[in-house]
Automatic annotation (TrEMBL):
SMART domains found in the cross-reference section: Ala_racemase_C
Annotated protein name in UniProt: Alanine racemase
Pathway: Amino-acid biosynthesis; D-alanine biosynthesis; D-alanine from L-alanine: step 1/1
Lineage: superkingdom: Bacteria
Gene3D superfamilies on file: Alanine racemase, Lyase, Ornithine Decarboxylase, Chain A, domain 1
A GO BP entry: D-alanine biosynthetic process
Positions contributing to substrate binding: R133, M309
Enzyme Commission (EC) number: 5.1.1.1
Family classification: Belongs to the alanine racemase family.
Catalyzed reaction equations: L-alanine = D-alanine
Domain Alanine racemase C-terminal, chain residue ranges per copy: 240-369
Length: 370
């Protein structure tokens, strides 16, 4: 028998979450963001659930080619654009759209046009409206637009930006206000479609934003983009991944005894402890403290002590029927349908659901559930 840990990908939840994105998007297009190997789920695994999307968005060419090999013939957007001149040959061959966020990328396009004037590209011109990662500053954006518009190989230009605070407030004001005003003022009078919304902006602000292309990411994978203000239940989202294992040993602790490395947890009374086949080598966060929630046989419990490479401990004191082989859900669905949202687990570890799902390691087997 193999080690009893597995990650389950729920296709029905992915389809449901995409439909929720469509409900909020109205008449806008919805692109499924599948960067980082579909947020750790696996592009090939999620593809059957996302084929009704209007397009896909991701980072690198290798992932884009995997989508083409799966048979996707629609739009694929490279969110960070091209990384060298040679990338344009691949984009031309496989009909890939890409963002333009820096002057050197326009230089590459100009060079490419001299060599291949027959090429045609659909590009997304990115504005740095305040997040200060990628994009042209408002003062240089219109000049960049003019340079692209002058190139015959550019078939269309979509205006693009990314909100830094769509999940809450920014300096006491609604989080989207500053960047939205900057964006609107800068592109005023320029032709072209617009792409503004990530998951948080889509769920919280879509009616107030004119975004022709919605880039739906974390919400598709059953995590709330503005947790804890809103939970997945508030947004009617479903967990798309379940990390499950089993109890492989049971220990009895006396008052004053500790468990695990560093003796970080000391029992104040007699306790019954379950040892779970899951550790940081599986992708579970080592920094997760005692008290991080888990489900044991679909009932709430918590971790105790330090997470080690291959194991962690959970409290069984209130679960007398839980024994060797009992199911432990680290996040997601139990086999009987109880839910432990990944957002609650990540909050305990001081991180976000994105990181937990992306961190599942290669030694954890995946199962796809229709």
């Amino acid at each position: 028998m193999s080690r009893p840990i597995q990650a389950v990908v729920h296709l029905d939840a992915l389809r449901h979450n995409l439909q929720i994105a469509r409900q909020y998007a109205g008449d806008s297009q919805v692109y499924a963001v599948v960067k980082a190997n579909a947020y750790g789920h696996g592009i090939e695994r999620v593809y059957p659930a996302f084929q009704s999307a209007d397009g896909f968005a991701l980072l690198d060419l290798a992932e884009a080619l995997r989508l083409r090999q799966l048979g996707w013939q629609g739009d694929i957007l490279l969110l960070e654009g091209i990384f060298c001149l040679e990338d344009l040959f691949v984009c031309q061959q496989h009909c890939l759209s890409f963002s333009i966020h820096s002057a050197h990328q326009i230089d590459w396009l100009q060079q490419f046009q001299r060599q291949h004037p027959e090429a045609r590209f659909h590009v997304y011109l990115k504005m740095n409206s305040g997040m200060n990662r990628l994009g042209f500053a408002p003062a240089t954006y219109r000049d960049a637009f003019a340079q692209l518009q002058a190139l015959e190989i550019i078939a269309s230009i979509t205006h693009m930006m990314h909100f830094s605070d769509a999940d809450g407030e920014r300096f006491g004001a609604p989080g989207i206000d500053y960047q939205q005003q900057c964006f609107e003022q800068t592109i005023a009078g320029l032709p072209g479609k617009r792409s503004l919304c990530n998951s948080a902006a889509l769920l919280r602000h879509a009616p107030a934003l004119h975004s022709d292309v919605m880039r739906s990411g974390i919400m598709l994978y059953g995590s709330s983009p503005d947790f804890p203000q809103h939970t997945i239940q508030d947004w009617n989202l479903k967990p798309s991944m379940s990390l499950r294992s089993e109890i492989i040993a049971v220990q009895q602790l006396k008052a004053g005894e500790s468990i695990g490395y560093g003796s970080s947890f000391v029992a104040e009374k007699s306790m019954r402890i379950g040892v779970v086949a899951c550790g940081y080598a599986d992708g579970y966060q080592r920094i997760s403290p005692s008290g991080t929630p888990v489900l044991v046989n679909s009932q709430r419990s918590q971790t105790l002590g330090r997470v080690s490479m291959d194991m962690l401990a959970v409290d069984l004191s209130h679960l007398p029927d839980a024994d060797i082989g009992a199911e432990v859900v680290l996040w997601g669905y139990s086999s009987s349908g109880a839910i432990l949202p990944v957002d609650e687990v990540s909050q305990a570890a001081g991180t976000v659901g994105y990181e937990l799902m992306c961190a599942i390691t290669a030694r954890v087997p995946f199962v796809v559930q229709a």
